Amino acid sequence: MGIVAGLDSSSGFTRIVVCDTDTGAVLRQGYAPHPVEPKAAEVDPQAWLLSLGEAASGGLLEGVQAIGVSAQQHGLVPLDRQGALVRPALVGNDKRAQVAAADLVEGFGGRQAWAEAVGCVPQAAQPVAKLRWLARSEPEAAARVATVLQPHDWLVWQLLGRPARRTTDRGAASGTGYWSAGSGAYRPDLVELALGHQAALPEVLGPAEAAGMTPEGLLISAGTGETMAAAFGLGLALGDAVVSLGASGSVMAVHHEALADPSGMITSFADATGMHLPVVSTSNAVRALRGTAEMLGVEGLQELSALALKSTPGASGLVLLPYLEGERTPNLPHTAGTLSGLRRESMKPEHLARAAFEGMLCSLADALDVLRGRGVQVRRVFLLGAAAELPAVQAVAPAVFGAQVVVPQPADYAALGAARQAAWALGVSQGTLSPQAPPAWQGASAQVFEAGEELAMGQAVRQQYTATREQLHPGAFA
Length: 478
Hints:
alpha/beta; Nucleotidyltransferase, domain 5; 2 domains; seven-stranded mixed sheet; globular; Carb_kinase_FGGY; carbohydrate metabolism
């Protein structure tokens, strides 16, 4: 039996799982918070190493043969010619680069030109926009930048003893804004456009390749971003999509090719297996539920869920367009939410509660349809986030999405994905696994919900929602 480890360095903590290489069974786990505020926009990367060391204490990694690294995405770690930090790392939640992103869109010929070049339109979170912000706001620091890494790249480099060779993987690279998931190549001209000069970029490894060996003889796999690691840990395949229910929402699916989308609604990531992960995001998801709970004076989402289930599909004609913070999908940044269909018989708390759940899920179904409209197959939807456990979500989602809904048991899926990648790279190095076929670990434990007889009712709910959206925002998805 072999043993591998996967570590996930998120914005606020490090989680480590130690797994059996053949089955994926978790043998040991470690956890440590980062010694920084998770909402901080700038971080000394040494904090990530301190957290990693604490999480791995007590002999957690004893007997481990290989390690995979997953880390927060969209961070920028700028290094000088000697490999020293130019300034603290800029992490994904830094919003200061919004103007810089808009400048880049205009400076490179518009949204379609960017979509065709790298599969996405620059946004504030992406490293390419952070480079432009650095060049404009801290020109002296920008002039010293010789190498650009992301958090997982930097951690892998540190684990390997800071070798001359620096690496990344296609998943993390696809979120930079200067690597194309379609062509599998960097666009150094976009780095120069953003930073003002060229910078060295890490070598992009294939899914089963190893980044190297540590001085202690541990194999380190390519690593990847948290999104890609979580998808790998969940065991997603063609026909699978993931709907994440946070304050905002996102829809991600496995696809066989990169998608260029001039509208900017689709961001085309690469995954950790050689496939692609097109993502569509919404600005509003659980925030619509929380707002409705406050409006009705109910205690929390569980009570709101119970109230919603006292209503019937269609909420007696009430429709909530949950665009409370504007919306990204469709692109309506300055709009507001709308409650439509008020009649005397519909003015009851349970109908408004039901309309909130239906509105949130119909909005995410719109996002799913953006992917379906580009040929992405969706036969099964994984629901993630605490709200996925709500009975009202589980009752409404299968019919509204028109697909089987899977609610996985809570687990450290990003760390599990990193461990599975480590097992793959280890197996390839030992000649026991093919570079084309990852280890067949047991899938996530989950509840499964079918649309069944409710499918027709779900279609009616979607039609009611779509008619209201088109009346208020005609051609929003044109």
